[in-house]
């Protein structure tokens, strides 16, 4: 459909699309400790991911982000769910969450921060991005036959994160 049929106007709520990927290897998950000079999530652990670029589909965006940030090539991505995040009255972020398994490959340095393989049971002891204490166990428990989840994040009047999942 052409642009004028899409209903994309400044009056509608719009999303910025992003991907978030958690790569596992046995009982470990690959996390990135945000570089100290990052504007967002400095010194906090997060999964791999980033913005969806124009012309990309969501799956290819996730694979590109994994390669750019880790040097790993993954082909088997399990779609785990989406999270919509309210940013302003008119805009938000929509995160497409994936899980991938890695059996081999050498990690390359990343400008995003320090890549670390972390045992699942030790991840809660790390300074995680604020939603990962809730999100990471949900993603790691996602089996091939598990239905995708649908999450929504917002902030209350005290700027405290409010998380809900369907």
Question: What do these coordinates show?
Answer:
- The chain has 166 residues and is an alpha+beta fold.
- The protein has one domain: Alpha-Beta Complex (Nucleoside Triphosphate Pyrophosphohydrolase), CATH 3.90.79.10.
- Helix content is 16%, strand content 39%.
- The chain contains three helices and nine strands, in the order H-E-E-E-E-H-E-E-E-H-E-E.
- Strands 1, 2, 3, 4, 5, 6, 7, 8 and 9 form a nine-stranded mixed β-sheet that branches.
- Strand 8 and strand 9 form a beta hairpin.
- The longest helix is centred in the middle third of the chain and has 13 residues.
- It is globular and about 45 Å long.
- The mean pLDDT is 91.
- CATH topology: the name is Nucleoside Triphosphate Pyrophosphohydrolase
**CATH homologous superfamily name?**
Nucleoside Triphosphate Pyrophosphohydrolase
Helicity range: 10-25%
User: What's the assembly state of these chains?
Assistant: single chain
Number of strands: 9
Q: Structural class per helix/strand content?
A: alpha+beta
For the sheet with most strands, the description reads: 9 strands, mixed
The domain count comes to: 1
Keywords:
alpha+beta, 9 strands, 166 residues
Topology:
Blueprint: H1 3-6, E1 14-25, E2 28-34, E3 45-46, E4 48-51, H2 58-70, E5 77-86, E6 91-101, E7 113-119, H3 132-140, E8 149-155, E9 161-165
Parallel strand pairs: 1-6, 5-8
Antiparallel strand pairs: 1-2, 1-4, 2-3, 2-7, 5-6, 8-9
Short structural description:
The chain has three helices and nine strands, in the order H-E-E-E-E-H-E-E-E-H-E-E. By secondary structure, it is an alpha+beta fold.
């Amino acid at each position: 459909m052409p642009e004028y049929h899409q209903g994309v106007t400044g009056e509608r709520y719009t999303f910025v699309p992003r991907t978030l990927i958690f790569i596992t290897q046995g009982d470990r998950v690959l996390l990135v400790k945000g570089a100290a000079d990052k504007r967002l999530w400095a010194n906090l652990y997060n999964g791999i991911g980033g913005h969806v670029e124009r012309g990309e589909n969501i799956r290819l965006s996730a694979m590109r982000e994994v390669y750019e940030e880790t040097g790993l090539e993954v082909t088997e991505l399990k779609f785990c769910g989406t999270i919509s995040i309210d940013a302003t009255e008119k805009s938000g972020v929509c995160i497409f969450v994936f899980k991938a398994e890695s059996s081999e490959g050498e990690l390359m340095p990343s400008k995003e921060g320090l890549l670390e393989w972390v045992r699942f049971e030790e991840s809660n002891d790390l300074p995680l991005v604020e939603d990962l204490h809730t999100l990471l166990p949900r993603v790691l428990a996602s089996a091939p036959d598990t239905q995708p989840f649908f999450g929504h994040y917002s902030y209350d009047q005290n700027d405290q994160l409010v998380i809900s999942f369907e």
